[in-house]
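User: Please predict the structure of the protein below. I'd like the answer in structure-token form so I can feed it into my own downstream comparison script.

Assistant: Understood. Taking the following sequence of 426 residues as input:
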Amino acid sequence: MSFDNLGLSADILRAVIEQGYSEPTPIQRQAIPVVLNGQDILAGAQTGTGKTAGFTLPLLEILHEHSQGKGHRPVRALVLTPTRELAAQVGESVETYGKYLPLRSTVVFGGVKINPQITKLRHGVDILVATPGRLLDHAQQGTVNLSHVEILVLDEADRMLDMGFIHDIRRILKLLPRERQNLLFSATYSKKIKQLANDLLNEPEMIEVARRNTTAETVAQIVYPVDKGRKRELLSHMIGSQNWRQVLVFTRTKHGANRLAKQLEKDGLRAAAIHGNKSQGARTRALADFKKGEIRVLVATDIAARGLDIDQLPHVVNFELPNVAEDYIHRIGRTGRAGNEGEAASLVCIDELGLLKDIERLLKRKISQEIIPGYEVDSSIKAEPIKNGRNSRQQQGRGSQPANKKREHKRPRRASNRRRGKPQPG
């Protein structure tokens, strides 16, 4: 099947072809016709499967098909993402595929000045891509009106719930029309995701292009047992001896990311850290330098790495295993994207054996292990509790509060109205 068979207009197809794409990915092939038909969807897809275009292309088609002319432009489509980087990536996708359409879009997120965002919103936009916190800032200041939203997209909804955004999301939902189309994308499934889907979606079409909570088949996974105090030494050895030119490394904490980046610099490896305490400008520069090959090692926390779109990234290293097993899937999904092969290595000390078991239980298989000569584990070292605990994220802030069971925003399907060109409510 080609993109020509999916019901997209010539102007959108032209932009797609210019990006070098001729055939849709499985998620695009399944999602685009359903979205064009006006149905809600619950889509499970790994990163790197083309899911962003899976909702961007039909969203552009629907809005263009029922364009509201040259007058005031209310926000008609809202895309919520968990991180700034992912918001920027989605915004870039909207601009790329909508370049030949008379639609306006903008991206709003925190960490940058709000006034330029206010100016763009006042000029009117059809499509708004936003992180929850900054969107609520605009709502409180009266600089955005969400009462005309026709399509809501929750991208990487599992990450938003992990980050404690459930209450922000519910506040945003109250600002939207009851009648709208909802698209929910999640790389993993959990009880919280199922509850959110039950509250949000109306008779959704289930779309899944990979088995639940699984990792991409194109990613080779391996565990290297090593003492905690020798991890940095082993990482430098691996990068140098195997001449890795582009490596994304994960740590559990912001402080750990900073410390590791500095240590790698002392080892003669160009490195930079990105995390939530870095300014948006610093994060953008570090990512750009990494993509250009000027930085060899990018050290990141889980939150900062969401939305990183790096073509043909060959290596991901878990310098520390994540506290939450599902995050392992998100991390290694940075490599092996779009059919390319990748390698995910995990440096595991005795303290992390419990976390490794959690990951293997989620994957329903063992990850192969290899001991590198000279870095054998010292059996006399005893395991110590991992700082902050294995469930630290769930114990922090808003994410620790139970989700509201109340069903929200149910509405009759209005797909037939949209497709026939009838006026939309609201």
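That's the full token string. Residues 51-65 form the longest helix (15 residues).
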